[in-house]
Amino acid sequence: MFNLPENYIHLAAQAENKQQAIEMAAAALSEAGLVEPAYVQGMLAREQQTSTFLGNGIAIPHGTLETRSLVKDTGVAVFQFPRGVEWSEGNTAYVVIAIAARSDEHLTLLRQLTQILDDEDTAARLATESDVGKFRSLLLGEQQVLNVSAETITLDVDTDSLLTLTAINAGKLESQSAVENSFVSEVIGSPALSLGHGLWLTDSTVGNLKNGLAFSRAKNNALAVVTVSSKDDGVNNVLARLLEPNVQQCLLQGSVAQILSALNGEEIVVNSQQPSDAKKVVIGTFTIRNEHGLHARPGALVVSILKSFQSQITVQNLNRESKAVNAKSAMKIVSLGAVQGHRLRFIAEGEDALVAIQTLGKAFAEGLGESPVLTALTEPDSIEVKSINAESAVQKSAENPETASEPSIEATFTLSNEHGLHARPATMLANEVKKHNASVAVQNLDRGTALVSAKSVMKIVSLGAVKGHRLRFVATGEQAQQAIDGIGAAIAAGLGE
């Protein structure tokens, strides 16, 4: 993270309007020796082009391309306005982060910021925190507010064993680099705390690397385990929610999306039931043409376009292998760190999904309101329409490529890792598979297992492969051969060990 001295942070400030707030921030940048005094004109001009309000009460005013020459050094000045400042279209900013950047450094800086600020609890605490040291710690992520992700939730486990569910959770936390091996050993050997109704809580006093949470539930919904890793008190809000009856009911009966909402303190939405054959998804893959990447202005245009549609839309940066995020959130768009040439994949679901993606594709082709733009693309943009059933079929073919219609490529490799395919090498293997546009499945020939998806860490671990076992991989898709070659090379190199 960038350097942020405490004297660059200004708490309990007051401003009558947005212009005054920007002028205060620009003056602070100038006093810190980061910019020339005239930089304020670029900040005000940028605000005229498009609002720099990100959401969650946070704004990031910065200069235009024409005023970059006035930047002496990259940095930020942070202002907290507890009473709020009206920023744009009824949005109120409570935290203003003024940015000075000499080149595309601001994309990296924004990406770092949004990873911390893309959380309502953190944003709310920043708006009211009166201690500058704690404010800085929150902003830099030194005090970690826990935000639960779908990757650590496992449902429909065919077991009635509390120990099995705890082990699954511990493996998830280890694969997320939230805990060390000592955590796994202790949490499995320690008694669980009953929260009632078949819901249990497990944790460990050792091996905690960062705040994290994993959840697993048995197939019969009668047993569920929450496992928490704790680095600081950033987990307290989630722990408090576990005692709420509606949250407990959601954990025992809800879907992954509902469980995420419950644990993250969001409204729990009950999905309306619709015939599965009536649902469609539209996938659009577009290249960033913009010379300076997906910074605030083009990012705001993307959000503006998509917010006019009712469909649910996510986006991921294929070049950074990012997670899919909400494409209607300016903060999450910026957090992708997309630069010129990067390819973004949008997935839309809803009645107006096709029109939304088509409109977005046209905007990308036109440079998202900027010029000059990249004209020579390495891969063409594409738009695909699939039914939910078709998506399921794709996933099933990944589980068992031998049933897929396209030809498959297969190879068998012998595992040489001293301790077999535990969490770390399994993660390395899954990450290698995800690099390629191919469906890949794997089976343990020495145990006679079924083929499972090679993109799932948990399914790879479930193969029970030890040193000397033979793993058979079957791949389909346009990069099937590259996937097999990459897998072979990764296994030969020891999968990081």
Describe the model:
Helix content is 35%, strand content 22%. The protein starts with 8 loop residues before the first strand and ends in a 5-residue tail after the last helix. It has a five-stranded mixed beta sheet. A five-stranded mixed beta sheet has the order 6-9-10-8-7. It has a five-stranded antiparallel beta sheet with strand order 13-12-14-11-15. The chain is an alpha+beta fold and 497 residues long. It has 17 helices and 19 strands. The longest helix is centred in the N-terminal third of the chain and has 14 residues, at 18-31. The radius of gyration is 24 Å and the shape is globular. Mean pLDDT is 83; it is low at 271-278 and 389-405. Helix 1 (18-31) packs antiparallel against helix 2 (39-49) and helix 15 packs antiparallel against helix 17.
Summarize the structure.
The protein has 497 residues and is α+β, with helices and mostly antiparallel strands. It has 17 helices and 19 strands. The longest helix has 14 residues.
